[in-house]
Task: structure prediction
Amino acid sequence: MCGVYGIWGAKEASNLAYLGLHALQHRGQESAGIVSSDGGRLFAHRALGLVQDAFDQRVLEKLPGDRAIGHVRYSTAGGAGLKNAQPLAVDYAGGSLAVAHNGNFTNFEELRARLEDEGSIFQSSSDTEVLVHLVARSRERSLVDKIVDGLRQVEGAYSILFMTNDELVAVRDPHGFRPLCLGTLPGQNGGAAAVFASEPPAFDLVGAEFVRDLSPGEMVVVDKTGMRSLRPFEEKERRMCIFEYVYFARPDADLGGISVYEARRRLGETLAEEQPADADVVIAVPDSGVPSAMGYAKRLAIPFEVGLIRSHYVGRTFIEPSQSIRHFGVKLKLSPIRRVLAGKRVVVVDDSIVRGTTSRKIVKMLRDAGASQVHMRISSPPTRWPCFYGIDTPSRNELVAASHSPSEIAKYVTADSLGYISIEGLHRAVDSAGAGTTNGGASGSAGHATATGTRYCDACFSGHYPVSFSEAPLRAQKRSLPLSTL
Result:
């Protein structure tokens, strides 16, 4: 999961990209980067860490121009490290090119092996660099045709931005796995600047107006002549990642005409219908679990309270002072409110369970705070399969639900009960959040997913992968681990 941001035709484009990346920080915290252009050359800066740590005014002053693309990274294909930070920026026979990619190419290992056999040299382990080579090697004449040629050779998920000194190109894969949105901002000389972002809230911060979602398979090209939309790829079934609504996207985002906040609230209501509990209070694991917990509490007429406080100053890494301090990581991020929990039968709503280790620590924390009972409710179905479309899901042998039943998991996390929403309930809840809404005329967003899930990707829950790929990764993950080792 990553975030991309692009802007064309605005004064101080890199400053605006910096603000836009701030709004997308939740999509990646390992590295941040911006490449700008003044129409004559590209200027790049990439660094590990958060956006505010990677950039200051001194750095931004070295990124001039009225066009820029930016990226925040959460590593999937290719490990963490500065060499894999994006946007990638290269010089090749056709000029200079920068690329920012959200998603994952499922066939990149085969493509990389072929390119290496043919003499290509790689500087990173990122799948995005494979596409850069394909574009650079294309025999097509124009940049747009080179990009189309390269993208027709890759498989998987991509919401991607390309930038040269003369063009900015935004593309969303034919299945539409990852979101990509178009906006406008008052630009120079009375014109309008084009803005692209993974989520609409990145427009709000800079005063841009949301126009629409890019359609699956759509390519939007911006240059000195204006903006044009192309459809160069074969049409395929739309498969927006449904977990964007459960966890990844910001709650104030609207994706595909559906409010993420409303979807999460309705997930809680559906979860209450399918997995009710006799309790005194409902609390959430913040932040993504809050709307679902509110919906759960409302449907069962149980008081909703803030029972866990989350520290917003904890990054992805921290210094652990002593191995003797058990559950240090969870305690650093979450703190219970004892007056809410003491002597109460508590329902705690979370968005997912992956390995189960964090849930086990949360249940212990609630019991230590005085809860008499702890009932866990999960607003997504059991995560049984890894994602190959842009999310760094653990291998299948580390997914606790891949080889253990809900009752076994409940025993492992020491909860009095554990209940998940069903796959059908997940789709029904997201569908209902979009019922009756419009998307500003967004092409490709009309209509909504059906209860059978034909418009969303739910492979991490169902194992039904929309894009075929080598079975080797799955075969390598058949072995399951006992709960005691997770």
The chain has 17 helices and 23 strands. Residues 316-323, 436-454, 471-482 have pLDDT under 50 and may be disordered. The longest strand covers residues 95-105.
